[in-house]
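Sequence of DNA polymerase III subunit epsilon (Bosea thiooxidans).
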Amino acid sequence: MLSNRVRVIDLETAGDGPHDVCEIGWQDVSLGADGRWGVTEERGALLVNPGRAISADTMAVHHIRDEDVAGAPYWKDIAPTILKPERGVLALAAHRAAFEQRYCRPRLSAGAQWICTWKCALRLWPELPRFSNQMLRYQRKPAGLVHEIGLPAHRAMPDAYVTAHHLRDMLNEASIDQLLAWSIEPGLLPRVPTGPDRGKTWDQLSAPALSELAASRDVDLRFSAKTELERRNGQNEVDREPAQARLL
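Predicted 3D structure, token representation.
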């Protein structure tokens, strides 16, 4: 039987250096018989021994201590049991999935495809002012999200649970193939995030300002500016044809 679920993953790490994983959380989102996606009861979290001390800065965020993970399994041993569950998955998902993908390597996940809910939120809800996992939670107030299950923030299972509600709503607005396609590309920012034009939509920028941002080192900023340049070029091509017809 083919899988009908996407598994949302969230990781907590030890901080500094290689940021070794110290907790993995998961929450499944499944396609129902009615053709709608829903958040299931399949969720959980496991502590992971990072093989090194957890930094104080990181403990202050997630409150996982060295003594909590001392007897936990190592990442390479526990990761496949979560990333490659029985019956498989259609895809894995995470908010800003590039972070999780650094650790959930193809050999641990059977080469699963990934959905980035941050990138998809930029596409589906561009009118929102901010796109962090928790800001989406309180801006959109997803139906059915049990407040207490989504706490504490910055722990793996509660964060995966919150992300799963965003993913459910996304899958009910767009196809899984569309979400996967958006996730492969850089983030399409709805507004300029920094600099003198901060807060402006791309169509409000002058051509010189847009060209400057299209040369940015930031991949998402560069992609967003180039997308607007391509839109303008395409629009110009369309506008020129009627003008030529009138001249003729």
